[in-house]
Amino acid sequence: MKIFPARDIGKMFARLSEELPDTGAVTEKHTNLPYGENPRQAIDIYLPENRGEKPVPAVIFLHGGGWQSGDRADAQMLPVFRLLKCGYAVISAGYRLSDTVTFPRNLYDVKAALRFVSDNAQRYGIDSERLFLSGASAGGQLALLAAFTLGQAVYDGARGADGRFTAGADCSELKLAGVIAFYPPTDFLTQDAQFEQMDIPRAEPESPDRLSGADIMFGAKMTASPELVRFVNPIDSVHAKVPPTLLLHGWLDPIVPALQSETLHEKITAVCGAGRSECRITADGILHADPDFAKPEWTEIILRFLERA
């Protein structure tokens, strides 16, 4: 097995602190808006300049970080942050990390953030009929799963004895115009085999004796409970009415194999027909959590998807 050098892993992630989005230059913004009691349960709304009176479409972004780290203002947001100049509102949403919660509470957070945006759309000049959900890496997994299970009560939250939601939010009437995922895990138990199939350098394989970031998020070793992992896998939640989906990945990604996006695209196409999913995998050296996804050619791909959806 080819191993991606550890020193290069450090360099790869160092770019997340070097190429931050220039949020200070946004003239109209509403930051640190809470949708829950935990400090991580907050969103930042950035609105495009000269937007006029008409409500604008919005892209809601979820950061990556292995479900255990990351920040809603880091460089992973750059590809969608560029959409501000194209007339889209950009909303970056935080969620609780695996140092305090396990799945599905992070998913409940995403649903609660969606509910907050929808309920307050008119207040912030956002078109509630044109909401897109996006995420990178771990955030991509959460974005896909949230989009594919929208309105499914067991995934939206838990109800208390009085019938009120104690976690998450009732999303039964919410609709998403589309979902965009950057280098997302989509089928956790197939990643090792996919790296072997692709024969590319990967980050050091997980030890059988050590919990991975995904295991910690799941609350147990995934390989010990394969029958339950399907409830975390976006690929196992595909159904005929999933929203339009755009998947973006680098073939040489050493953290999440690009075949994760390709196989999800194939599953959506098989279930929903051609045109519901679009998958773009590049072999030009773009890696994981790579700010190069914010280059103009990728912005154009994202814009065309948003306009078609």
Show the helix and strand layout.
Layout: H1 6-18, E1 28-34, E2 42-47, E3 56-62, H2 78-81, E4 89-93, H3 105-119, E5 126-136, H4 138-148, H5 153-156, E6 157-159, E7 165-168, E8 178-182, H6 191-198, H7 213-218, H8 226-229, E9 245-250, H9 259-272, E10 277-282, H10 296-308
Parallel strand pairs: 3-4, 3-5, 5-8, 8-9, 9-10
Antiparallel strand pairs: 1-2, 2-4, 6-7
Fold and architecture overview:
By secondary structure, the chain is α/β, with parallel strands linked by helices. It has a single domain (6-308), classed as Alpha/Beta hydrolase fold, catalytic domain (Rossmann fold, 3-Layer(aba) Sandwich), CATH 3.40.50.1820. The chain is built from ten helices and ten strands. An eight-stranded mixed sheet has the order 1-2-4-3-5-8-9-10, sandwiched between helices. The chain has a two-stranded antiparallel sheet with strand order 6-7. α3 packs across α4 (138-148). It is globular, with a radius of gyration of 18 Å. The termini are far apart.
